[in-house]
Amino acid sequence: SSGINAEWPLRPGRAGIIGYLEDLRDQRVKTVLIGFQTLARGWLARKRFRKLLDMRVGVMVAQRSTRQYFVLRKWQWWRLFTKVKPLLSVSRQEEEIKEKRKK
């Protein structure tokens, strides 16, 4: 054991040391870039997954609303409610406007 590192280039001189240091730098840059790429891919995958979950919830809400509409549309009280409801919101808006003008 002469104390020579196995990774150290066998041929001495400036070019050998510089080449060795460049290889070390390249390995380190490669490691850092791979880590960054891994983090970025993970972040994007989680973002896509959250978007898919939101879309899934939206589809479920739309399906539930559609099912309820098909059940309720045949009931007479629902027909009456849907005809009266817009009139109620208009009068409520007018009351709110009057209250704001008083203040």
Task: Describe, in plain words, how this protein is organized in 3D.
The protein is mostly helical. It contains 2 helices and no strands. It is elongated. The chain starts with 13 loop residues before the first helix and ends with a helix.
Compact description:
The protein has 103 residues and is mainly alpha-helical.
Spell out the key features of this protein.
103 residues, mainly alpha, 83% helix
Order of helices and strands: HH
The count of DSSP E runs of length 2 or more, i.e. the number of strands, is 0
**What is the percentage of strand-forming residues?**
under 5%
Biggest sheet overview:
none
End-to-end Cα distance, whole Å, is 94 Å
Radius of gyration: 35 Å
What is the fold's blueprint, element by element?
Layout: H1 14-72, H2 76-102
